[in-house]
Amino acid sequence: MAHFGQMCEFDYRKKRALRFSVLRHLRLYSPKQRDALYMHFTPDRNTEIEEVLKYLRDQKYIEIGKDKMVRITASGRRHLEEQL
Fold first, then answer.
1. pTM of the predicted model, to two decimals?
2. 14-40 tens-digit pLDDT
3. Domain spans, the chain
4. How confident is the model at residue 46 (pLDDT cuts 50, 70, 90)?
5. Using alpha carbons only, what angle is made at residue 47 by residues 73 and 10, rounded to the nearest 5 degrees?
6. 3-state SS, one letter per residue, for the chain
7. CATH match for 8-83 among 3.10.310.40, 1.25.40.10, 3.40.390.10, 1.10.10.10
8. Could you give the CA distance from residue 15 to residue 60 in angstroms, rounded to a whole number?
């Protein structure tokens, strides 16, 4: 990852760590209100959690229902186990 530059690599690692933190949290407490995730992970920086939730949803690791409940999927559990 060094070819991205030091700041880009730092941002990448920070977002990656946040993605895994969200998955670990949802593994224990799924389903969880979307707003509660915002407050738990980044109470003052909502844009980061929004990007992370979008990425996890696009990868099908989580589902976000119409009721704004966030649930970890089976593929999200598998992905988390593979990384741990």
1. 0.84
2. 888 899 999 999 999 999 999 899 888
3. 8-83
4. low
5. 90
6. CHHHCHHHHHHHHHHHHHHHHHHHHHHHHCCEEHHHHHHHHCCCCHHHHHHHHHHHHHCCCEEECCCCEEEECHHHHHHHHHHC
7. 1.10.10.10
8. 17
